[in-house]
Amino acid sequence: MRILKAAICYGLKDIRIENIKLKDLEPDDVLIKIAYCGVCPSDVRVYEGLSSMELPAILGHEYTGWIEKVGENVHDIKVGTRVAVDPGQKCYTRCEPCKRGYTNKCKNMSNAYDGFAEYHVTRRMNVYPLKDETSMLAAALSEPLACVVHGQKQAKIKPGSVVVVIGTGPIGLLHIQTSKYLGAKVIASDVIEQRLKVAKEIGADVIVNSSKDNLSEIVAQETEGSGTDAVIIAVGRPEIVEQGVKLLGIGGNLVIFAGIYPDTSVGISPNLIHYEEINITGSSDYTDQDFIEALRLIEEGHIDIEKLVTNIYPLEEVAQAMEYVRTNKGLKVVIDIGANEN
Fold it and tell me: What is the secondary structure of 236-287 as a DSSP string?
């Protein structure tokens, strides 16, 4: 029986490094020795007591690693193979969302976490071998990029689109890079100068510090008064949703990408929606195809993931990593669990 170290969250700001037993492999499973795991805002929400997740639980779901062992039915991947892991195990056929094609909203999703641990058991179908030259650190963030790819589809970005991304944290910066890859002009807005600087470095055409400048006026200037094709809300504030709707042109798409906590209502004129024929939608999670596309974007060098990683902590300092994410000082924070051990 193998014992492994894992970071287990018990409640509000209570996360502990403990030794636990590794579960047995089923015939179609593989055992992953984890290299890197990113810290997601959803991890921090659990840590802050703002989630309904059943605790105690091992957090973390953005990770890469090596195949350590395979189940008896697994013959197409070798021990030692470097892989990115899709953490979401979906049922595909049993629940109504999956039957309708919304596998990102699977009602039977299981095993979505467990990344803040030395090892993890998952299905063979949930791991993707990496090219020899692919960075394990970059590929660890395939999952958040997959969420962004899904959101870009909701925004209907195409060549020549004008896109406003509000919020230039790690997710907003991924939206900027992905929009640019799809051929859009990007206006990025935030109140943190350092994040706006990075947004410019990775391709934003126009940056706006909305605490100093009027975003609406700048959008009007950049679009000759016609409004934008898409607005992506990558910060969880309800007033930003109300502001974002007013930036859209005829037939524009507003994507509420960030969750808003606590839950609240927003005030939007129905006539604005009616007469301008605008579309308001959300984006949550990703499908298998989104994950595959995200990994391709990373492996082909279209998205510079490592540019966004500002802090790396060892597993033993996962609580400090959580606290750092809460400060909004850096960008993407990653846990190094065993990156230098193979």
Answer: --HHHHHHHHTTEEEEEEEEE-S--SS-------HHHHHHHT-EEEE--S--
Mean pLDDT over each residue of the chain, to the nearest integer: 94
d(CA 36, CA 136): 7
pLDDT at position 112 is: 59
At residue 342, does pLDDT exceed 70?
Answer: no
Query: At which residue do the structure tokens 């030395």 appear?
Result: 118
Question: Rounded CA gap, 97 and 91, in Å?
Answer: 10
CA-to-CA separations, 30 to 61, 186, 291, in angstroms, rounded = 16, 41, 19
| C-alpha span between 53 and 15 (Å, rounded) | 14
- 140, 169 Cβ separation under 8 angstroms: no
3-state SS string for 152-209:
HHHHCCCCCCEEEEECCCHHHHHHHHHHHHCCCEEEEEECCHHHHHHHHHCCCCEEEE
Please determine, for residue 270, whether its predicted confidence score (pLDDT) is greater than 90.
Answer: yes
Span 101-112, average pLDDT: 85
- Under DSSP, is residue 114 helix (H, G, I), strand (E, B) or coil? coil
Domains of the chain in start order, with CATH, are 3-141+305-336 (3.90.180.10), 146-282 (3.40.50.720)
Q: How many CB atoms lie within 10 A of CB 183?
A: 11
Backbone phi, then psi, for 6, in 5-degree steps?
-150, 150
pLDDT band for position 59 (cuts 50, 70, 90): very high
